[in-house]
Amino acid sequence: MVPAGYLAKRVVKRPEWLQAPQIEDIYSLSGCESEDFADYIHYWKHNGYWLFDSPDMLRAVAQEEAADLAGARLFYYEVHELEFDGQTWKSFAPDPGMTTNVTVPVNKQLEGFDVVTFWAKSSPEHSPLSCNSLAQDLPTNAHCLLATFEEAEASINKGASTKSEPGPYRIFAVFSVDWF
């Protein structure tokens, strides 16, 4: 796993349509349920993984956007070096048109692993566990994440992603971090 960056999210409770009673809230990387703190892409201050290198860079964009960060949760992400294209695992790299220099947090709490689609090969698109209700058939935790990397990889290898948005699919470790 390699450092991918930070994102602030407005975490929501499990929606009623998601029939997975073990889930309390949604910590997915995609913004489909728990929305991103702002529409940040047009500021072009994100890194090659389309996340932020540090909480300070994120705060600067929030200030420009006049986005209130009160109540938003800060997450840090690491990404597996390979993505699954539907047939094979292949290496990928951050977008070379953007600098990527992620500051790794001193304190981080692993919350689980998310599988995220990247059909357009840019920003995170969908998290099939929540967006496509795959959490109804897979053993997710209270935050709609898989407990281990091995579970995330196995779910992809067994074809769970064929019931979701098109890939490629990337595995992200999702960490909670404190604002500092």
Describe the structure.
- It is a single chain.
- With 180 residues, the chain is α+β, with helices and mostly antiparallel strands.
- It has one domain (2-177).
- Helix content is 13%, strand content 24%.
- The chain contains three helices and six strands; from the N terminus they run E-E-H-E-E-E-H-H-E.
- The protein has helices spanning 55-65, 128-131, 149-157; strands at residues 2-10, 35-36, 73-84, 89-91, 109-117, 169-177.
- Strands 1, 2, 3, 4, 5 and 6 form a six-stranded antiparallel β-sheet that branches.
- The longest helix is centred in the middle third of the chain and has 11 residues, at 55-65.
- The radius of gyration is 15 Å and the shape is globular.
- 38% of the residues are buried.
- The mean pLDDT is 90.
* Spans where pLDDT lies below 50 across 5 or more residues: none
* Structural class based on helices, strands and sheet pairing: alpha+beta
- The average pLDDT value, as a whole number, equals 90
User: How much helicity do the residues have?
Assistant: 10-25%
